[in-house]
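FW: tagging you since you asked about this chain on Friday. Here's the raw sequence from the shared folder, copied in full. Didn't touch anything.
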Amino acid sequence: MSSALERLKNLTNKISSYELARKNNLKILEELYLEVGVDQKVPKFKNIFIFKAINLSGASLLNENLGEIKEGKYLQVLAIQYDKNTDVKSKNISLAYFGRVENVETEFKDKVVEFIIRYRFEKSFMTLEHYHTMLDRFSK
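HL: got it, structure written out here
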């Protein structure tokens, strides 16, 4: 009995921890959205989640070399917009352009990288919720 109770307690703590992390992430993400200037192209914060994905050119998003610049490239935040009602289903849209990556201050570049990672963190929760809702259809 205490083993089941202990597992439930651990699970509750983990879920609570994720929800706190998510809430904090959203707050910081919205601040970064303004700081990096994505609000210039997407005036309402909540609308950034309409995009299928947001990517970055000019700096790495890989865990092994996160934020490492790609010499000769341009630092740019790109969104992938998907429209099933058009001939070309997806297209890239520039949300923010900062010029050659080696000319961008490291601190600012790091904020842009953080913005992308925080966006992906929240987007993963939204995807999880979406599939969880879809699975509900099978349990009835």
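FW: Strands lie at 53-57, 74-82, 90-100.
HL: agreed, and The first strand starts at residue 53 and ends at 57.
FW: great, closing this out.
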